[in-house]
Amino acid sequence: MNSNNSMARVFCIGQNYVAHIRELGNPMPTSPVIFMRPLACLVAPGEKIQFPRHGKLLHYEVEVVVRIGKPGRDIDETQALSHIDAVTLGVDLTLRDLQKKAREKGLPWDAAKAFEQSAPLGEFLPYDPVTMDLKHLAFRCRVNGQLRQDGNTDDMLFSFERLIAELSKIWILRPGDMIFTGTPSGVGALGSGDVIAVDNDQIGSFSWTLVD
Fold it and tell me: Is 4 a member of any domain?
């Protein structure tokens, strides 16, 4: 599932699908919204997820996640996809009540986004540009068997190429680094006992159960 590189980083992109930005009532960003999570936030498929104790309104957000396979700095967009070695699906778990409070006060999102088990992550599939079209990748999220999110990467505000280029202006991207690339519309609340399942026809299906 995860990179074996203990030095790898988890980059996350917020507000990258127009319909999701609108459903939250947020202004449209003019550049990628970037935040990070510790590796310890990742959760392997099938593991139980403890409902966080420090918040009340927990939302699911399915995302396509890419992994960096070769290092780069100031990567040109025309070369960006060549730096990806694997693709999977993940879930960005968000305590929306805490995020709202942080936004209102202009504070960081860490408590709302980077808590324990906040980043369920599927198994990585090696990326082959011949067989996988990253720009038109359909993916879904179901809760208790009911379809909640039905997204496609062609709706991304900032492309994979743009995200990799922008990140590489700030950090030297290294093998094992992961990028959660944003969520489509349809996010909603989770409760104890809920089963979250994400899937794509090529990548596969992964699920997690929420417990108290």
Answer: no
